[in-house]
Amino acid sequence: MAEAARKPRPVRCIVKLGGAAITNKGELESIDEESLQSACAQLRQAMSDGAAPEKARGMDWSRRPGDPADPVVDAEGFAGMAGLGLDSNFVVVHGAGSFGHFQASRSGVHKGGLHSTLVKAGFVATRISVTSLNQEIVRALAREGIPSVGMSPFACGWSTQRRNLASANASQIIESLHAGFVPVLHGDAVLDESLDCTILSGDVIIRHLAQLLTPKYVVFLTDVHGVYDRPPTDPNAVLLKEIEVDDNGGWSIVKPALQGNRKGVEISVAAHDTTGGMETKILEAAVIARLGVDVYITKVDTEHSLRALKGDVNTSSDNWLGTVIRAAK
What we know:
By secondary structure, this protein is of the alpha/beta class. It has a domain at 13-63 and 74-225 and 295-306: 3-Layer(aba) Sandwich (Carbamate kinase). The chain is built from nine helices and 13 strands. It has helices at 19-22, 33-47, 75-79, 101-107, 117-143, 171-178, 202-213, 277-290, 303-310, and strands at residues 13-17, 90-94, 148-150, 159-161, 164-167, 182-186, 188-192, 196-200, 217-222, 242-245, 251-255, 294-299, 323-327. The protein has a nine-stranded mixed sheet, with helices on both faces. A hairpin with a 2-residue loop joins strand 4 (159-161) and strand 5 (164-167). Helix 2 runs parallel beside helix 9 and helix 7 (202-213) packs parallel to helix 8. The protein starts with 12 loop residues before the first strand and ends with a strand. Residues 267-276 have low confidence and may be disordered. This is Isopentenyl phosphate kinase.
């Protein structure tokens, strides 16, 4: 894989904003504005080194359709600041949720075959959808004063070989981190050397970036409190608080102690989800954990998500709701 010659800057955290957490998955191309705003505000809190001003100075100076007036630009305020007061060594990757999945599944983009006019049209439609969501997430981060820049894997030259990552040039990501920006990537439609095209999921992107950047920790923000032993809609579902991954990739449930099969986790994936849902999350998180990087999975817009983003998680305490996946000691 092609990588940058420049040494990566130490990254504190890679954050996955789950599609189900920041969009309304039952409604086509609908953003959950409250959850997204909360996630961005908590990210700013986690990045703050105490020197950041209490009120964020917004960096979205564009005019949106329907805005009654031109955007407010606090040029003097920014000019008088010595710095933003933020630890910006974060990378954000977001899922698609109600963006992209519909277009991809209707056209079969994830199966490949660009000789088909339908697939080619679907590739275009999918990328329009996911990049529009990326822009809205970058806007939301910028409104919180976070210096974020959107980056599409397709545009950066990422590609696959039979759906496995084949080329992933991270030079632009690394240069952006060095410049003090927060890169914001997303699941994308990409070219595939064997299938012509497919869908590259945000979870696979995070796994590769974790291998390259070795962050202190990784956070998955979802619409549920973590990984359960069965679908969380089941009233008997049990939250798995701690999972350990051994050197061979095998994993076991440490907390709570479950009777019967310690590895028994049922997976439910929405029919329209072309990227594998929770199953992909667990598998990719296990690969990251084997690197010695703790993975925290918790619910967006909660006190637990703020603690995870700060890296302030203590699994011996019962007052944090989420799942920690880490390497076996």
